[in-house]
């Protein structure tokens, strides 16, 4: 039992979710994969900002153009001295040099000049006190000054009084005392700091003493890179044994605000404050500066060439009152770093970004609660994956996960870009996505494994079911089952035998379909091609009568051609469909070229003896009756005859399709079109009723309609009878249950008013797409038709007029005497309901005591007998390709019952 529970646990969605969560945590803690994605997202979101860089900062670049014109780097320091003099004269606020001056720059000739100067100075003076060779000594002193570039630079620094120089520190945790103390000039820029609110250092590299003494301040130029090599943080303070050295950017901001180092206030673990500017930092005094996005493919700050400024091409007045950062950008000179929004930034440009962030308080804040919030959201994601996601459907889970995933990343993006607040949500978002994919994959694999097993079992079940159906003679159903089975050699044998069975039944078009299905798997199977070609030749012809050898059958000629059979004077083209008692063919009169539909009935197969004689008489009597109906809205009967034991009726071949398709909710016709169609059917029935012919099976399937020509034809008078009360058998019920009148269901004698009731039901369905009476069983349906009133059509379509609703209700009244008494009255009422002039509106169905006044009593019954016992029906057929439904001969129910209760055991084709 415990083993079974353990096995089930391994298969649960919750267990898979837990495994996915653990795997993601291990990945996150052991690698930098998620961290890399987070940093990339941070770069994109933080630079998608409306913040603009400060206009008080400029960059002068030691670029390729400058090196090409001035000479190889490093230049003589008098060149830098000249630049400082130029900027100082232009009143630049602060000058920041990013070049390190750790070693003196000594000209090779300076030592010789100094030696010569010493020799000359050691000579005794003349009697008048003058030194010998004084002019030469003065020239040597001038040369010494020109060659001592360090002295020139120191002089320029001292004269400018606003130049900041960089220092560099080896970072690390001190383990003792320093090797050397900070020089006095460096301590002028340092802050006392013993609380650990800075990055510790163990060794310092300071500029030359002469230059450091002349400079306005010395800051550090240490830059910390993330694991991916990019710069995202600024180290504001480096602690050298209790002395916190500010960064170059911080020192430049201080100097530009006319503040001193003593004006810097430290808030350990929170912020560094200079004047009124409070810079939020982490616990190590590191800030997240705003790196401004590039503009039009260029950097955020304008960068001018050193050479252009030095030779006056760019006026120095441009830099008045600004912080000017001078640094190398040329290829191979200095170091460049990747940063948010830029693949490569020089130290000078980095100082410009950080300085602007400090002066404008454009830093990005990662609050202390951010880490806790990230893990809390991660825990909520874990709870969702373990507890909620397994209970959701695939569609719902995909929707919820998508919303949560987009919500987390969208929140981080908005906070970074709009509020400069960094909340790390990439990890919980990745956890959510990973867990969802793991669970979805598990479900898919389990489903596919189950589906594969189910498919194998289902395939064998379908094959065995197909064989059973084939053995019962239900070949169509057998083929349907075989098509659900993947084709194999074993199935090919089953299909081959099925095709032979179709051929034995002369259903060559179906045999062709089976052969084509087989050819898709193995076109060379046995004599498949020969069988297929033969079936194709025979699929468009027919075999008439009971035997394939009688004169009416199709003949195979030399070369495989087929001679088409004849029925009377009609050449049979192809089979259109089968019914319960006969087949309908497409035929053509070769003399006049008329295309007809030929309904046949093999009477000899259905009847024998006296019944055959009676059936033959009824068949031709029906043909004669229907043939007398010459009306533009009734299908025309051309001919009738008997040949080769086949009785046939040739009738008009109709285009268009029946009204069944227009009774569906998404395909209803306009109300005016429906009324027009029903009006014409009512007029056609009025004509038939005057000829004493009752249709008995009015329904959408028996009304043909061609939309383009607006043509309406009533078809299928095959169950019509010449009404004669003395000849009609009591209890004979003919028709389709849902459309039958109460008197027809009860087995009473019917007249034309029963057809009008059926027409009212059809009108109701064409207006609403539902039947007025529906039931779960035949008995329930019959009870509702006999005892319950139909609901008002306006309960389904409120936009219908009250007049039209009254017409529908009046046509379906239970008592025939309160309905419309003839089709013309029905048609007139419909026209009046649609506003046709010269007509009156029928009375409301809510007042059954006042139905439309019938123009005359019901017509007298014909003396012609009404034969009983026939349930075949004549159907009109469409041209190939115009109506894709098979002709239906089985949807007319014939029930022998003296009362409705007696019919409960019958299973007709009725609509629920």
Automatic annotation (TrEMBL):
Q: Which domain of life is it from?
A: Bacteria
Task: Tell me which InterPro entries the record gives.
Answer: CHASE2, Kinase-like_dom_sf, Prot_kinase_dom, Protein_kinase_ATP_BS, Ser/Thr_kinase_AS
Q: What is its EC number?
A: 2.7.11.1
Q: Where is this region: Disordered?
A: 834-912
- Residue ranges annotated as transmembrane are 12-30, 369-389, 396-415
* Cross-referenced Gene3D superfamilies: Phosphorylase Kinase, domain 1 (3.30.200.20), Transferase(Phosphotransferase) domain 1 (1.10.510.10)
Q: Which UniProt keywords apply?
A: ATP-binding, Kinase, Membrane, Nucleotide-binding, Serine/threonine-protein kinase, Transferase, Transmembrane, Transmembrane helix
Pfam families this protein is in? CHASE2, Pkinase
Give the signal peptide, or none: none
Q: Identify the residues that bind ATP.
A: 599
Please list the residue ranges that the record marks as compositionally biased, kind Pro residues.
Answer: 848-862
Q: Could you confirm whether the keyword Kinase appears in this record?
A: yes
Q: Where is the composition biased (Polar residues)?
A: 888-899
Outline the extent of the Protein kinase domain.
Answer: 570-834
Compositionally biased region (Low complexity): 834-847
User: Listed GO molecular functions?
Assistant: ATP binding; protein serine/threonine kinase activity
The cross-references to PROSITE patterns, in alphabetical order and at most eight, read:
PROTEIN_KINASE_ATP (PS00107), PROTEIN_KINASE_DOM (PS50011), PROTEIN_KINASE_ST (PS00108)
Give the protein's recorded name. non-specific serine/threonine protein kinase
Q: Which organism is it from?
A: Candidatus Symbiobacter mobilis CR
